[in-house]
Amino acid sequence: MTTTDTSRHLGATTRTDVLVVGAGLAGLHTATLLARQGHDVLLVDRRTDLTGAIRTTGIFVRKTLDDFPLPSEHLGPPIRRVVLYPPGMRHPVSLTSGRDEYRVGDMAPLYAAAADAATDAGVRTALGTRYVGRRGDAFHLVGRCGPTVVRARFVVGADGARSTVARDLALDRNHHLLVGAEEVFELPGSDEPPTFHCVLDPSFAPGYLAWVVNDGRHAHVGVAGYADRFPDGLRRALERFGASAPGLTGVARPEVVERRGGPIPVGGVLRRIGCPDGLLVGDAAGAVSPLTAGGLDPCLRLSELAAAVLDDALRTGRPDVSAAYDGAALRARFRGRLMLRRGLAQVRTPTMAAVAFRLLRTPFGRAAAERVLFGDRSFPGPGHG
Ligand SMILES: Cc1cc2nc3c(=O)[nH]c(=O)nc-3n(C[C@H](O)[C@H](O)[C@H](O)COP(=O)(O)OP(=O)(O)OC[C@H]3O[C@@H](n4cnc5c(N)ncnc54)[C@H](O)[C@@H]3O)c2cc1C
């Protein structure tokens, strides 16, 4: 079956067990799991087409690839090699894993496949439909055919880093954010092994990394950092980086490229992410690694926990999900990564980055980098440790 957009059939009022706001990976996965458990689910997204306005590079880590059945035909070749560069990009440190560590998703067909899976499970999906707020026990949408009032037992905020649902449920909200932007273009193939190039230079990426992912099929060239610290703005930083980016020798940037970007919450999973009326998943819940800024694995795992908790609440009639869905308990598992994020945030100049980079050349530094880049840890979730 292919995704059916039900936005034209919503009407002035509708009822559902669960209203899921946002059809990114977190919302799609949560909605599908709940519908498979037999619940009535309405999934809405303001975008009219889920394959447009993509906000992610789409790097999936090994643990996700092991634990979730992502369609292999929409994943790029496995990547085992990471090259880390200091400011100036001379004498990089190259790390190669003995295992396949990453694959880059072809995100448009991956979102389409996830939306089809939601439809197959029985989810009603309404695109071009914006959640505008809550009044009492009614949730208000505005879609292609005008406003709709939704009465739902629960609402799920899967509406990204700046969640409106979090505001309306009086739950915690993300305040510690990076912004990222990248260009994506096809490659004719490459003799080089698929490689993830990471540049630690605050003049391109203040507080984070600039990157090139070249898996032989696509190039992703991007920068991310604290919005107020880019010396000449995010867009200009991406242009400057693109002009000198590593890993693309002999590759000409085409005239037309796909542009992606958006905020990345890095303050760690929020403490209050559930209440009697609903809960938050994905970026809305701050479920992103504070250190690597990877959010795809966390959003899939937290969605599983959310769906299990809501299923239980719907079946038993016990409404308060906050005890079983406790961000503070999950957050405690991220203390180390939050500390390292604070450290990375302090690297404010290329000179400081060059000094910090010296550590990466030592056996201790290499081992630490390998643990972060090739480690087995992932976001805690039901059944996945
Ligand atoms: C540039 C960039 C690169 C990244 N690269 C990676 C990576 O390679 N690997 C990785 O693991 N993580 C990466 N991340 C992080 C990762 O992409 C996110 O953590 C993840 O996609 C979050 O999914 P989500 O479903 O929670 O949110 P989103 O994908 O942001 O989905 C939120 C959805 O909510 C909808 N929405 C918002 N408000 C409303 C509203 N009021 N009404 C209706 N709909 C609404 C939006 O249209 C959107 O579809 C990257 C992030 C950025 C910004």
From TrEMBL:
Matches recorded under Pfam families: NAD_binding_8
Domain of life according to the entry: Bacteria
InterPro entries the record matches: FAD/NAD-bd_sf, Geranylgeranyl_reductase
SUPFAM superfamilies referenced in this protein's UniProt entry, alphabetically: FAD/NAD(P)-binding domain (SSF51905)
Gene3D superfamilies attached to this UniProt entry: FAD/NAD(P)-binding domain
Protein name: FAD-dependent oxidoreductase
Organism: Streptomyces taklimakanensis
